[in-house]
Structures are given as structure tokens and as C-alpha cells.
Amino acid sequence: MSPKEIIEQFVEAFNKADYNSLANLYATDAINHQVAEGPITGRENIRKMFKLAFETADMICIVENIFEDNEWGILEWKDPLGLRGCGLFHIKRGKIAFQRGYWDKLSFLRLHNLPLPTK
């Protein structure tokens, strides 16, 4: 599968809050590193991360653009509340091996009425 197809599956599962299907898109030893968080290593830890995230906030990903170049895919997205972000996906053997996400955590917390960091 192409990076674009994997990203499209990612968005579909994300919008259903289907953390099991999301996790299954990742390689066993994948790394998901969101800019506002530390890296999460391993499919099972990524599954737990998504499960917790979906329990914390209702999130929707609206695709603005998907770009691909060989093993790399880039997702530019927004959500219905106005938050915007970008994800870079390295796809190896049909699985996400590495993901790097960029978004504004402070805006996310405010938009979802979640507690702000104390430091």
C-alpha cells in the first residue's frame, strides 16, 4: 500500500476513535512522536496512547492535503474547532514505522476545556 492509502486508513480509523485499527497500522516497533509529547515506542504503547486520547477528548481529523514521496507521507489536517496540524509518516513494508506530529497542545487543551499545564 502507498503512504497515501495508509494515511487515508489512518484518518478513517481516527475519525471513528478506533484505537485498535489505528494501532494495527503501525509496525510492531514503530515510534509515534508528537511534538508536544515524548516519543511512544511500540504498537501496544501506541494503542494505549490513542485509547487514552479518545477517552480524553472528541477529536476529528479533516484532511486538507496528503502528499507522498517514496516511503514518506505527509498529512496536513484541521479539525472542526479550528486546530490545525501536520503529520509525517514513514511507511515501511505497508506499516507506519515512524510518525512525527506537529500541533499546538495549548490550543488543543483550551478548545477541549482540559486542564492547562502548571509549569
UniProtKB/TrEMBL annotation:
Q: Which SUPFAM superfamilies match?
A: NTF2-like
Domain of life where this protein originates: Bacteria
SnoaL-like domain: residues covered: 7-97
Signal peptide segment: none
Q: Which InterPro entries does its entry note?
A: NTF2-like_dom_sf, SnoaL-like
Pfam families, per the entry: SnoaL_2 (PF12680)
Gene3D superfamilies linked to this entry: 3.10.450.50
What is this protein called in UniProt?
A: SnoaL-like domain-containing protein
The uppermost taxa in this organism's lineage are: Bacteria, Pseudomonadati, Deferribacterota, Deferribacteres, Deferribacterales
